[in-house]
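Entry:
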Amino acid sequence: MINNILSYTELEKIFLPILKLESIEVIKENIYNVLHFSKGSPNDTKQYRICAETTGVNSIYKNFEIEIRRLEDKKNGYSGVIIQFRKKKLFKDFFSDPTKQIIIDLKSLCVKEIHEAWFNRIVLGRIIKENEKYQFLYQIGTLNPDWEKQNKLSPLTIFTHESKDSYLIEFLFTPLCYERTSDKTVLKNNWLELFTLYTPSW
């Protein structure tokens, strides 16, 4: 299988149209070009899981495989984006956490386009499962007060999961909770209502 090693500039081409709330056609066109996916037209409303399995190309950023898990079309837009970064653990990873640089890059992309894109953290450790660690970074001011009951945390979340053998970083974004004003993407006043309505539970 061919490896497609992505630069930070190419990562920007995937994320910035999403964070700028550009049309789903523009978003898909950028993703298809960067990840070499040509099975679907950018205007096709059918959803694809875009990864090495569907493209025949293994797209890698800083040793993590990238997978587009969700790009949902709705009548007036789309309800959410899920982009995953996956990596098997290597011996050297015990000395330096490989997720840190990915998280730094994702945060920097958010700061470029989203007003007040500062993050708080929730860490769930071995209470859930022994030898596994879960961390949620969410935009300050966007924590769903009923997140534990609804299993919906925030419309802008960077989730990390570390197991014995692998790392997972998941970027989750609900664009319907935001609007574009001037040169920044801003949280809507009724974001919580929209988030509860349009974002599926974990």
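The chain is about 25% helix and 30% strand.
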